[in-house]
Design a protein that fits this description.
With 345 residues, the chain is an alpha+beta fold. Helices cover 25% and strands 31% of the residues. The chain has a six-stranded mixed sheet with strand order 6-7-8-3-9-10, with helices on both faces. Strands 13-17-14-15-16 form a five-stranded antiparallel sheet, with no helix packed on it. The termini are far apart. Bound molecules: adenosine-5'-triphosphate (ATP). Residues 13, 20, 38, 40-46, 194 line the site of adenosine-5'-triphosphate (ATP).
Length: 345
């Protein structure tokens, strides 16, 4: 039985307008870390808020632990939610912030200390219990918010971009901490982000949303290596997949698969590229090339090269892609097609 399930879940804010969330069918797996990934406005937060009970669905059902919960209040759903802004009570100590939900839940006072200490230890914030939120760093505040969420021993965690207020370095360490924390507690977790790197790094599975529709749900490897449509293909991966239209098909290949032709002995296709620009990123180069000659003359293609690459701007080089690295999509529907379009050039 799925911890969280949705059936044709839909939210239309204004009658006649397109839905913010459309017909979402979802089943979490026991203990998994599931990421909702999509650009701004794709419906991630609305979907999460409906699961939490903070937003009323227009249609469809939400089940938690196998029972329909549409009519239940957020508290009755036994869900813990951590938002972008941690919303700690500024005038209360860390201890009191963490204990707050226990009071609201009517847990006996004698048990408070035990539970708060358990949560604080799990998050490594035992020595901060007497401080006020303003005396904490961003990362520490996040841990307090998580501790406050886990004292309730929820059946599911909902996290809405909890790391977005942190700077890049802190974000990376907070991400790792959150992963370790999830491994320790093993509670099913849904995590919202628009950051594809974060999604790939953290998710057991990633659900890609676009305009309120689920485009794909799968492991990071599945969504990256077998994107179900051109949206997923270009949203995941930076720089994005190269796409070229060819008759009824769109052919795609990732920048790391467009390599100097001498490195691709059995290239299915080759391009002569004039280097327009290149960026050095330390461990790699990103090369922007313009196709010179042939059917795709003038189109820009992006290649990701090892740090030893020595291509010069305005020079021309031959690049190739292996057959196994080509993706084919239907030009009308933009969906992945099983059929390979042979002789596509
Ligand atoms: P972001 O990453 O920017 O937070 P999101 O993917 O979480 O975006 P939502 O906040 O779920 O997206 O919004 C989905 C759509 O619903 C957007 O078009 C938004 O404008 C609309 N929307 C959200 N809340 C409301 C509301 N209360 N009233 C009307 N429209 C809303």
């Amino acid at each position: 039985m799925a911890v969280v399930e949705t059936r044709a879940l839909t939210k239309v804010f204004k009658e006649g307008e397109v839905g913010a969330v459309n017909d979402v069918n979802l089943q979490t797996r026991e203990g998994e870390f599931l990421v909702f990934l999509g650009p701004s406005g794709s419906g991630k937060t609305t979907l999460l808020r409906m699961i939490a009970g903070l937003e009323q669905p227009t249609r469809g059902e939400i089940l938690i632990g196998g029972s329909v919960v549409n009519h239940l209040t957020p508290r009755e759903r036994r869900i813990a939610m951590v938002f972008q802004s941690y919303a700690l009570y500024p005038h209360l100590s860390v201890y009191k912030n963490i204990a707050f939900p226990l009071k609201a839940q009517g847990v006996k006072k004698e048990l408070h200390r035990q539970k708060v200490e358990w949560a604080a230890e799990l998050l490594g914030i035992e020595r901060l219990l007497d401080r006020k939120p303003r005396q904490l760093s961003g990362g520490e505040r996040q841990r307090v918010a998580l501790a406050r969420a886990i004292v309730r021993e929820p059946t599911v965690f909902l996290l809405d971009e909890p790391l977005s207020n942190l700077d890049a370095k802190l974000r990376a360490s907070a991400r790792e901490e959150l992963e370790l924390f999830h491994k320790r507690i093993g509670t099913t977790t849904i995590y919202v982000t628009h950051d594809q790197v974060e999604a790939m790094a953290m998710g057991d599975r990633v659900m890609v949303l676009h305009q309120g529709y689920v485009r794909q749900i799968g492991t990071p490897t599945e969504v990256y290596d077998h994107p179900s449509d051109t949206f997923v293909a270009t949203f995941l991966g930076s720089p994005p997949m190269n796409l070229l239209e060819n008759g009824e098909a769109i052919v795609g290949f990732r920048p790391e698969h467009l390599q100097p032709v001498e490195l691709v002995p059995q290239a299915a296709t080759t391009f002569r590229l004039r280097v327009k620009n290149k960026e050095y990123l330390g461990a790699e180069w990103i090369l922007y090339g313009i196709v010179s000659g042939g059917k795709f003359d003038g189109r820009e293609l992006i290649s990701r090269l090892g740090s030893a690459a020595s291509h010069q701007t305005d020079q021309t080089y031959d690049f190739g892609v292996g057959e196994q690295d080509l993706h084919f999509f239907d030009r009308q529907t933009e969906k992945r097609t099983g059929a390979k379009v042979l002789a596509w050039r």
